[in-house]
TrEMBL record:
Keywords assigned by UniProt, alphabetized: Kinase, Membrane, Phosphoprotein, Transferase, Transmembrane, Transmembrane helix, Two-component regulatory system
Xref: PROSITE patterns: HIS_KIN
Name the UniProt record assigns to this protein: histidine kinase
CDD domains xref list: HATPase, HisKA
Organism per entry: Candidatus Enterococcus ferrettii
Length: 431
């Protein structure tokens, strides 16, 4: 499921980036294309006034004559004009470039055939042209070769667009290469950040699966005890309750264990709900801790544990319910794991805005390899599994969750067969 979600996330993000790149590069290309077309259109349709002083040019091996004028108009680009009669025959050529008679005639025929304009190629160049009616009055031959304003004439202008087409082609190729490069780059970046973003989700998914497996295993044990002992009761219906009391005791212990585990699971569900707002009220932190210690005093006395307190007055705004629950978890742990005749110390310290609370008890301690795992759900050392029936491995996980909600942190140190110390660093809103 996680892999499928990762692939979908990468595919969707890559698709989104691809669309953005395509739209951006298309916008760049279209903007450039329209600008070039606009410039070409402006050059093709610019108005000119030409004063002709006369002269004749004969094409090689031809009886036709056409007046040719060699001139350069700054800013007009590379172009030439042709004045043709109503049959499309060239009358005058206004050009600053050298083309053969064949190319001029070919240009005239192509333009005359398609008078709506377009692009053609000759002389190894691309030419865009327009055809428009013209008013001309020429007297370039004394032997009755006159063109008057009443004669039907047309002006054909050819503009060299080879370089502009090449620049657009180069731009398209550049955008394509850059786009592919950027797409590959963004794809790798997306994979990197998708993997980083998915890592907490994978860990949460793995933790949830492990949690369900562990919870199922923990629930299976008391249910198996209850089911087995109920089966024994059914097989000996003639016996009295007194004779079957040990089976009932087993059922009762299994029921209590399952009830305790379910209560712990409900606590986890509640503390995991980060959307539920905390209820901050004005409380005496030292009094809450003192009351929690008093509730366990009888259990400490039964094990002859010496309890040492070093508390001082702190009034702060915090969630009273969560704080009591947090204190009880550490005190209950100390009550379970402090050795008979040992000591349990509770000490409060003040450091700026922080309230530091230390819970230190003597006992078997925790091995170094187990220290990083004690806050994991359902984690218990082999010794705890064997010696402490009422331990579920959930208390410290709940405590860590509570401390995180209260914007604090927990540290742990322990020495095997000596002592264990939990240190709470809580940031409190002082009154």
């Amino acid at each position: 499921m996680i892999k499928k979600f990762r692939r979908r996330l990468i595919a969707m993000t890559t698709g989104f980036v691809t669309v953005i790149l395509i739209v951006a590069f298309l916008a760049i290309f279209l903007t450039t294309y329209l600008r070039v077309q606009s410039d070409n259109f402006e050059k093709l349709n610019q108005a000119e006034e030409l004063k002709i002083t006369g002269g004749k040019v004969h094409f090689d091996d031809s009886e036709e004559e056409a007046l040719q004028i060699d001139r350069i108009v700054p800013g007009g680009g590379v172009y030439f004009n042709m004045l043709v009669d109503k049959a499309g025959r060239p009358i005058m050529i206004d050009s600053a470039i050298k083309l053969s008679k064949k190319d001029y005639n070919k240009a005239a025929k192509i333009a005359w055939k398609n008078q709506e304009g377009g692009v053609t190629r000759f002389g190894n160049r691309d030419w865009q042209y327009v055809v428009a009616p013209a008013i001309a009055s020429l007297n370039y031959d004394e032997e009755d070769k006159n063109i008057g304003e009443e004669d039907e004439t047309y002006l054909i202008r050819f503009l060299d667009v080879t370089d502009s087409k090449k620049s657009l082609k180069n731009l398209a190729m550049t955008l394509l290469i850059v786009g592919i490069g950027l797409l590959i780059f963004f794809y790798l970046v997306i994979i990197y950040f998708a993997n980083r973003a998915m890592k907490p989700l994978e860990e949460a998914w793995h933790t949830q699966k492990q949690f369900i497996a562990n919870a199922s295993h923990e629930l299976k044990t008391p249910l198996s005890i209850i089911s087995t002992n109920v089966g024994v009761l059914y097989s000996s219906k003639e016996d009295t309750i007194e004779e079957q009391i040990k089976w009932l005791d087993n059922i009762s212990r299994g029921t209590k264990r399952m009830t305790g585990l379910i209560n712990k699971l409900l606590t986890i569900a509640k503390t995991d709900n980060m959307f539920e707002p905390l209820n901050f009220t004005k409380v005496r932190v030292d009094r809450l801790l003192e009351e929690a210690l008093n509730n366990y005093q009888e259990k400490f006395d039964s094990k002859q544990v010496i309890v040492k307190q070093e508390l001082f007055n702190i009034t702060a705004k915090t969630d009273e319910v969560l704080l009591i629950q947090l204190f009880e978890i550490f005190i209950d742990n100390a009550c379970k794991y402090t050795n008979d005749g040992g000591t349990f110390e509770v000490k409060m310290e003040e450091s700026g805005r922080k309230c530091i609370i230390r819970f230190k008890n003597t006992g078997a301690g925790i091995a170094g390899e187990d220290l990083p795992k004690v806050f994991e759900r359902f984690y218990r050392t082999n010794e705890v599994r064997q010696k402490y029936e009422g331990s579920y491995g959930l208390g410290l996980s709940i405590a860590q969750n509570i401390v995180e909600q209260l914007n604090g942190k927990i540290s742990l140190t322990s020495k095997v067969n000596e002592e264990t110390e939990f240190v709470l660093h809580l940031i409190l809103k002082r009154e």
